[in-house]
Amino acid sequence: MKDVLIQLLKSEVKPALGCTEPGAVALAVARAREVLGHECKECSIEVSANIYKNGMGVGIPGSNGKVGLEIAAAMGLLGGDSGLGLDVLESVKETQLDEAQRLVDEGFINISPLKEGDRIFTRVVLKSEYGTSEAVISTKHDNFILIKKDDETILNTCMSNAAGSASEGEESPVVSLSIRQLIETVEKFELKEIEFLIEGISMNKKMAEKGLYQKLGAGVGYSLKKAIEDGFISADLINMSMMVTAAASDARMSGVKMSVMSSNGSGNHGLTAILPIAVYNDKYPQSDDRLAKALAISHLVISYVKNYTGRLSAVCGCGVAASVGSAAAITWLMGLGYDGVEGAINNMIANLSGMVCDGAKAGCAYKLSSAAAAAMQSAINVKYGSIVPKLNGIVGETVEQSIRNLGEVSGRGMRITDDVIVDVMDGMNKNKGVLV
């Protein structure tokens, strides 16, 4: 199990340039263009409702302030390199931006949302004078399940279901363990096996610095920094966690062309999973061994929660998953034991379980600041003996039951919520902010 968890960390903790939903679309388009081999004359894209929701209003790296799936797809079509994975847009040249915008303005990029099928799903079909190509991503943002050129199938890992895509039903290996067993396993890791996780701190701090020293996006982190400098609020653990995490989100959601270390398919999850731990480490320095293990706990607890809530859902993953992982890790760093970690997780589930996701955009910085603050608060509350009682709302008899209950509420309980959110956002988009 130790080796399995280390491999899971290597697959789920990786750099990502820009929001992963537009990144997935750009990646699929770039791969389809490479397979097509000729000038594209027609571009049709189908995406899951969750991809559509998360990509509608978010800044695209290297686009000079443009937002949305269409410009990401156009950039991927003109200059994306699928070999870069979710950093696919790193290869786009500034000289290609005007042409990308022209394709968007002329309606060349056709994107339609699907309300059925997997939550992470992108199908791209390109046509030239000489033939067609198709690329399909499903279940994970960089997971190709189908690649075709004309009638030739280059790749096909589809499982038989209605969407023709891989199933989301596979359980994460972490859920074969209890939370206590998960942490006990992490404690047996050697530093050399997980040292790569520490890189996420420097990567994500660099993104935060962009949002701290320049007002970007919603300017949440920047305004909190000014409030601390003016003495309006204090530079304590909670406020510093809010400030740093929000600033990184401000910069990332505005389209700053820098990679962050993602977690479980999301850059914002990575910010929330890592930066509160970094803030705690700045105030109470840890050895590299303990710091790496804390990061491993954070990422793996997120995997545990996401197994039940899904990689994308109607609820904010930063609020209901990434902050849970961060709270667990900080509590462990405080030396509060397994019971304390379980208590911090229950505190988080009692707190932010109802935070909805209305897509990736500038306003996410507010949600990340709340998630980071709640994570730190939950750990601090445990330190002083405050843990939400068992059988309290959706908090169960055990922490594992609490997480399963959270998944039920987030998944089965809020599916219609997701549809309504997409309808509202789509209606405003089509009517320039006036819902009719």
UniProtKB/TrEMBL annotation:
GO terms for biological process: L-cysteine catabolic process to pyruvate. GO terms for molecular function: L-cysteine desulfhydrase activity. InterPro entries: Ser_deHydtase-like_asu, UPF0597. Residues 86-422 form the Serine dehydratase-like alpha subunit domain. It holds the Pfam family SDH_alpha. Belongs to the UPF0597 family. This is UPF0597 protein CLIT_10c00340. It comes from Peptoclostridium litorale DSM 5388.
